[in-house]
Every structure is written in C-alpha cells, then in structure tokens.
Amino acid sequence: MEYTIVENRYVGEDMYYMKIAGKFEAKMGQFFMLRAWDKYPLLSRPISIYNIDEEGISFLYKVVGEGTRILSNLEEGEGITLQGPYGNGFEKVEGKVALVGGGVGIAPLYMVAQNIEHCDCYLGFNKESIMTEDFEEVCDNVFTTVGDTFITDIINAEKYDYILACGPTPMMKKLISMTENTDTRIQVSLENRMACGVGACLVCTCKTNSGNKKTCKDGPVFWGEDVIL
Ligand code: FES
Q: Of 74, 102, 120, 196, which is most buried, counting CB atoms within 10 Å of its CB?
C-alpha cells in the first residue's frame, strides 16, 4: 500500500529517521518491507519499526546498499510502499529489564521501551551517540558507549531478569554467553540478511536447537537459549 513520507532526515552514524503518515498496528520488534522504486533494485528492504503513534509510523535505517540509498534520498511529500508488519516481535516481559542495542540495532528498541514499564537501556555506537533523547524519555536509565568501548563492557547482565537485544552478531553472542548459568533470560533480534522477507527464499536461515529457522518469519526475535549464533 502506498503512503506519504512526512519526514526523512539524517541523524548520524550513517542512519536516517523516516516518518510516514497513516494508521498502523504492529508488535514491538516487527518490521515492514519498504519500497520506493519500480524495478531496480529488485527487492523491497526490510526495516525495523522505530515507533508507531497516532500520526503514523517511523523507521530508523542505515544506508547499506542501493535500496537504502534510494530511501535516504526521498523527501517529504513523496510516496512509499509499505508491506507488513512481518516477523514475530519481542515477547513482553516483566521484572528488571535491560534493552541493549548496537548501531542500527537500537531501532526496534524504542518501541520496546515504550511498551515496558521500567527498563534500563544500553546503546552502543561507532562514532557518536544518536537518538538518546528519545530513549531518555521512556527508560529509567540510558547508558551509551562510543568507539572502542563495547556496550557489553558496561553491562552487569546478572542484575536483570530479562535482556532484550538487537545488534551485530558478536554483541549478541557475548550477551548470550554473559547470561549462561544465570537466572537472566535474553531475547535477541537477529540482523540476518533478508531478501523476500516473507519466508519464501531461505536467504535468512539461522540455526536453532530445534533445527534451521527463517529469521524473517520464525524470528527475527529468538530466545538466547534456543538460537545458535
Ligand atoms: Fe526470504 Fe526469509 S528473507 S525466507
């Protein structure tokens, strides 16, 4: 379905914030397939939902290829096609909760933060911290790292009942290992490369303790004890 872009701006770290007008419903951690071109590039791009409010839906995305480059050049008033929401999303949890995001992995966590009553948030960046004011509004505490200090260096995982994370595979591997032999449970949203986004092409296959799964359809969120990274 075609919608209208109301905002599309650079926010730092090679990332853009795009807001699209319309009525949307989705679970935290789901994604939409975005498309603003006719034939080339062939595939729509899977982008995590940053937020949904009464005015529309917003996305935070990183320019990584031709599709996202075209998205970044779109202007207010231009049209865009959205399909979705797709994916399973994060399961809602209660207790002491930490959200951990690395790079563009911070994108799905803002909607999570709004849906969880109390949480601490840990955001890791390469060159500069971005979007932190948004998280400060909805989280109890926001901690950031930039550059050589990894976000995993400043987390005491055992302090939390649940960790909900999205970011590069090494970050999530480390977090899962930090929760092993503790009472802390972790959900990770995988950033596997996707093509069709709807379970038809198998490009996004990941390994779990119950066999191969499709990141786009069975995930992107998995419990840490189930997924094999
Ligand atoms: Fe095609 Fe997941 S992206 S099956």
A: 102
**Tally of domains within the chain:** 3
* pTM of structure: 0.95
The parent domain of residue 154 ranges over 90-189
**pLDDT in the model for residue 43:** 87
Identify the residues whose C-beta falls under 6 Å from ligand 1.
194-197, 199-204, 214-216
Query: Cα of 49 to ligand 1 centre, how many Å?
Result: 18
ipTM: 0.99
For ligand 1, the distance from its centroid to the CA atom of residue 192, given in whole angstroms, is 10
Which helix H or strand E contains 173, and what residues bound it? helix 169-179
Nearest ligand 1 atom to the CA of 202 is: 4
In whole angstroms, how far apart are CA 69 and each of 10, 42, 47, 49, 188? 12, 14, 13, 18, 27
